[in-house]
Structure formats: structure tokens, C-alpha cells
Amino acid sequence: MKIAIVCYPTFGGSGVVATELGVALAARGHEIHFITYKQPVRLELITRNIHFHEVSVPDYPLFHYQPYELALSSKLVDMVKLYKIDVLHVHYAIPHAYAGYMAKKMLAEENIHIPMVTTLHGTDITLVGSHPFYKPAVTFSINESDVVTSVSQSLKDDTLRLFDITNDIHVVPNFIDTTSHDNPYTDCQRDLMAKPEERIITHISNLRPVKRIKDVVRIFYKIQKKIPAKLLIVGEGPEREPAEKYCRNKGIENKVIFLGNSSEIHKILCFTDLFLLPSEKESFGLAALEAMVNGVPVISSNTGGLPEVNVDGVSGYLSEVGDVSGMAKKAISILESNETLKKFKKQSKEAAKKFDTQNIVPMYEEVYAKAIQYV
Ligand code: GMT
Fold it and tell me: Which residues cross the membrane (predicted)?
């Protein structure tokens, strides 16, 4: 199949999933066309089956806001015609599903009928999309998609609760290649980050309020009182500065390392002992799955799709949002003995296998086949 993938190319789960999907589909023989405003960050390898088409929005003094949807829908029309695309797959409803719908309509005028698959990722529904300013357009573009998928059952339930949806929603969970993470870094370079007796705890996110970074630091504060440990915070965002300040106030600034954005996530997870994800909302929690595939147990909140990924008592533990003491206690119970840590590391890696690329990508192929039948 010739598949056009529209996504956000930045650091963030939806862009990562879209990129990994394109790469996996290309490896299965499909021709993939990424259409977005920048080359996706995780798209390192351009192969014969992978193409990237940049959407540029010309600057014009009249525009207070750049009309990205217009440029995207025009680019979609051109690319669908030029490459004879079979299916359009948009990740993140805003504004991609809306732009995709416009492209479909323009193409239909020329008697070209292309199906559109929309994948809902989370904040496009739970945070941004349900805002009254966007809700009518988001509802419309979900209902006008030929097939809609969501990355967890929880997100499907949220979508049906928050919007007036007339379409079916198919749950296709996020995925990861579980085979390529077997000892990718033999020495792990653990000594770069911590002393041999210290446990390494990691958090990775875009450091937005929804991630509850202060809880991450407060949980760590309790852990390091009992167990020698370092905290690595990976990512950039508005909560970094307040978190740095909090660490200085608590006198733990030497134990917390802010690494900024990194393209070496798997290298960092290779020497990590425990992953913290105490989010307010999380439709899936791709970062937790990335930790698990590297054999890192996860302490997370029990919000949204997290219980579908992090299996309580197996790959780590779940707690109520904001239960800092509970999360710290559970973290300590894993970290305080080498045997327990070893057991959880093994179980975490095992639990990730359910989400292997080989199990999930065929589900998207089925979705495309279904979408093609609809037009
Ligand atoms: O977590 C974020 O703020 C980024 C956001 C995104 O759109 O990239 O992540 C969402 O999509 C990911 C991929 O499907 C999910 O793993 C995240 O759980 C989801 N984030 C939220 O629901 C807050």
C-alpha cells in the first residue's frame, strides 16, 4: 500500500508512534510518505520505501497565525495525486484530521476518493480537543474519518464520554520493537551518572504540568532518604525551572540531573533501575513502555491508559494520582533488595512483549484494508 502519514515531528509520543509505524510499515513493504512541517526526530533512516514531504507555510505580515491547516491540506492533495496514495493516516486530531478532511473533499472534486484513518493519541481529546474552542471541529473531523483508532481502551472511553461520536473507535495500542532492545549497549556507561552503590531513577517527558514533575522530585526526595540514588530528568518543558528550584530548596540538587531533550533514550534507560511516571492524565504512556522494554520497572499513577500498560505488581506498581508517599513506598520496596529489583526488571521486560511491533502493526494494516473498502 502507499500510505501518507501526517504527524507532529517533534519529541512527543504521538510523533514517535507515527514515525515508528511508518518505519515498521516500510519494512513490511509498504511505501510510506511522511507529510509534516519538519523531518520527524526519530526518522533517522531514509530508505527506498520512506519519503518525507515538508509542509512550509510562507510568512506573510498579514497573518497573525500561520494558516498551517491550509498549507497541509494543499500539500496532501498534491502528494496524493503525485504518488497515487491509497490511504491517508493522520495522527493527532488537531488539526490533522481537519486538514485531512479538507484534502479528501478537494480530491473528491477531481473524482479521487481516498480514505482517511485518524488515530487519537490523548491530549488531542482529553486536554486540548475537548476545549469549547475546538470541540465542534474535533467532533466533526472524528465523525468524518473513515476509520478512527485510539491508543487505549481508556482513551476510547474518554472520547465517547467527551464528544458526540457517531463513528466506531478501534483500539490499536502503541507498540515497540522488543527484539532490538536486547543488550544494545553492552557496557551501559552507568558510571557516567552514578556511583556503583547508587540506584538510578529516571523520568522522561515533555515536562508539562500534566506530567506532575513536582511529584517526580517529591517521590525521589523520599526514596533518597532511604536508599542512595540519583534522579535523571530527561526532556524540556515549562516545569523544568520550578523543579530545579524545588531541588535546590530541598538540598538535593547534586542528586538530580536534568539532561534536557535526548535522542539517546534507550541508552539512558539501559542504566536505569526505576522509571517514574506520576502523570495527571496519560492516554497510554509510551515512555513507560520504552522503560519496560529496557527491563526497567515502572512506578506510575493509575490514570487513563497506564493500567493497560504498567501491570500492577508485575512490571511495577500503580498508585492514585498525587499519592507521593504511596509511590515512594512502592519504589523503595522494589529498589531495596537486589533480588526484588532483578525480579521486577525481568517481569517488566516480559510484560512489554504484548506490545511488540509484530503484534500491533498488522492491526493497522487491517484498519487500512477496512478504510479502503469504505470509499
Ligand atoms: O504526553 C504528552 O504530552 C505528549 C502526547 C503526544 O501527543 O505526543 O502524548 C500522548 O500520546 C502518546 C502516544 O500515543 C501517549 O503515549 C501519551 O500517553 C499521550 N499523552 C497524554 O495523554 C497526556
Answer: none
